[in-house]
Amino acid sequence: MIPELGHFALALAIAFALAQAVIPLWGAHRGDVRLMQAAPALALGQALALSVSFGCLIYASVMDDFTVLNVAENSHTLKPLLYKITGAWGSHEGSILFWCLILGLCGAAVALFSAPLPASLRARVLGVLALSAFGFELFTLIESNPFARIWPAPDNGRDMNPLLQDPGLAFHPPILYSGYVGMAIPFAFAIAALLEGRIDAAWGRWVRPWTLAAWCCLTGGIALGSWWSYYVLGWGGFWFWDPVENASLLPWLTATALLHSAIVVEKREALKIWTVLLAIGAFAFSLSGTFLVRSGILNSVHSFANDPARGVFILGLLGLLIGGSLLLFAIRAPLLGASGVFAAVSREGALVMNNILLCSITAVVLTGTMYPLFADLLLSQKISVGPPFYNATVLPLAAPVFVAMAVGPLMSWKRTALMPALLKLWWVALIAAIVGIVATFGMNALPALFMAAAAWMILGAFADIIERIRLFRIPLASSLSRLVSLPLQAFGTTLGHAGLGVTVAGIAGMSMAVQEVVLVKPGATVHLAGYDWTLQELHDAAGPNYNARVATIAVRRDGRLITTLAPERRAFTTQTMTTTEAKIHTNLTRDLYAVLGEERDGAAVLRLHDNTMAPLIWLGALVMAAGGACSLADRRLRVAAPKRAAKSDALLAGRT
Amino acid sequence: MNRRLLLAAPFGVALLGGGAFYAMLRGLQTGSFDPRGVPSQLIGKPLPEFQLPGFSRADVLARKRPVIINFFASWCVPCVDEAPTLMALHQRGVPIWGIAYKDKPAATQGFLARHGNPFTNLASDEPGLVAIDWGVTGVPETYLIDAQGIVQWRFVGPLPDAAVDGLSKLVAS
Question: Which of A145, A173, A150, A156 is nearest to A6 (CA)?
Answer without folding.
Answer: A145
